[in-house]
Fold this sequence. Notes:
single chain, four-stranded mixed beta sheet, Immunoglobulin-like, 33% strand, 3 domains, alpha+beta, 24 strands, 20% helix
Amino acid sequence: xxxxxxxxxxxxxxxxxVTPKSKKKLNKKQKVIISVVSVIVVIALLVGGWYLYELxxxxxxxxxxxxxxxxxxxxxPELTELVDTEKYTNVTTDNTTIDFNxxxxxxxxxxxxxxxxxxxxxxxxxxxxxEYKLFGLILFSLDDTKTVKLNVADTxxxxxxxxxxxxxxxxxxxxxxxxxETFSATDLSDVEITVDNENVDYATVGEYATNVYATDESGNxxxxxxxxxVKEPTITVDPxxxxxxxxxxxxxxxxxxxxxxxxxWSSSDESVATVDENGKVTAVKSGTATxxxxxxxxxxxxxxxVTNKSSSSNSSSxxxxxxxxxxxxxxxxxxxxxxxxxxxxSSSSNSNSSSxxxxxxxxxxxxxxxxxxxxxxxxxxxxxxxxxxxxxxxNELIExxxxxNITWEEYISxxxxxxxxxxxxxxxxxxxxxxYR
Length: 437
């Protein structure tokens, strides 16, 4: 059992254990370190707050990420179109640039320098210089670039010209010629003209409904319904009837409408007249032969009449040689001569004596021969000169037709299909009339 003194000592020790010890004081070095750290933390908080404020102040966005225009439209980007400058007041033309033209300059060169921006997608770069300031002083700046996509699309189809025909005629086994000229269409890009030939049987005569299409480079298509009329091939020869003297030549012209453009020539009697591959006829002996030109399973013929020589007489009607006569449908005929005309027996062929011993001069102009001048318009020394004049007239009309100055119907009505001629009983020269269909 403990004594009272021992108990008191134990209580005193217990109180000593729970009594707090006195606080340890910081030395000077420690105080400096704590102060520096505190300042750094404060500065960091201030800088962080400032940066977040500036970052928020300089924040900006584009209005839309993509812009689409139609091919053929001119386009110059504006800053106010790309950025809401009223909302983002820090974005101005002073600190922002737009890089656009270089995006398609190369494409323009590849497109043969066309004036329009080619179909495709291009980047519009908006370069904004962000300035970070403190108390009005620019501390540093950063480049902030955003991109807007420009899409150039061609959605407009070609337009056919107003004069595009609704009907076209072709000959059997032929296709439509000069399609792009016949069915012209306008567009900003190149246009391809095609005809739906699946609906047309070019080997069978008839009428067919089909479509013609105009397609541009972007695939836009315009269609138009047309009627294709397939016709039988034709061939005509000119002149229709020819009179020749043995040894003479004449050329027959064949006009062909059809696939094959070369005629095959033949003579019904080569002992009377022959014909070469070019339609040149040679008179062999007196008689009649039929010259035929054939192409595309159709043919046309002309009659050749061959005599040994031109007939001449001193009858009251004058000397007449019927050469290159057409059928009786011709409207011109030889004028009748005076019944008192006769060829004088004197040495001079240009004068005639009357009963009154008065000398009359003849054959000095077109009007004082033994008969009137025909519509050939002159007197000729021989038939070769008439033939040359006839061919000249025909060739001139053919040239006018080939140039498109006259229609085929006009050519047929104007071209002489033959001629008839007669001679003067005084001088022996020839004149005559062209014959027409």
